[in-house]
Design brief:
Blueprint: H1 6-21, E1 33-38, E2 43-47, H2 60-70, E3 76-82, H3 93-100, E4 108-113, E5 116-122, H4 123-126
Parallel strand pairs: 3-4
Antiparallel strand pairs: 1-2, 1-3, 4-5
The protein binds tetrahydrodeoxyuridine (THU).
């Protein structure tokens, strides 16, 4: 599987940062954006959307997945997450599982903040020994 070229990486990070600028996070004040690269080179972005009934809030990654699936794509080739804090804002546990539905262990995950790329990892590093769609295939 070819490595992500730098221009695509930059495009994905920019999309995550732009989505982060539109986050609706009046309760936590913690703005997050996510962008997903699909197999056709398309980029699908989303932000966190909070709710006065706090548990009804949605993470940026979940928003981006909804955008991607609604656009007709079902395969994630790379992920960018944009946040800001003392340590890189990696996807929460639930979102690691959500991403795993459409991505693989080797899928690159780029973690950025407004200053640029902070961490380059993979979904397999974030969610080792993942449970995924293959577990439900007949004969498994
Ligand atoms: N958040 C995300 O959008 N993605 C993550 O992976 C981590 C957390 C959001 C949820 C909530 O709106 C805010 O960040 C604070 O937890």
């Amino acid at each position: 599987m070819p490595a992500l070229d730098l221009a695509t990486e930059a495009r994905l990070i920019q999309a995550a940062l732009a989505a982060r600028d539109r986050a609706y996070a009046p309760y936590s004040g913690f703005h997050v954006g996510a962008a997903l690269l699909d197999t056709a080179g398309g980029v699908h972005a989303g932000c966190n959307v909070e709710n006065a009934a706090y548990p009804q809030s949605q993470c940026a990654e979940a928003s981006a997945i909804g955008v991607m699936v609604a656009a007709g794509s079902r395969r994630i080739m790379a992920v960018a997450v944009a946040g800001q804090g003392p340590s890189p804002v990696t996807p929460c546990g639930g979102c690691r599982q959500r991403l795993r539905e459409f991505a693989a262990d080797h899928t690159p995950v780029l973690v950025a903040d407004p200053s640029g790329l902070r961490l380059r990892t993979t979904l397999g590093e974030l969610l080792p020994h993942a449970f995924g769609p293959a577990h439900l295939e007949p004969g498994q």
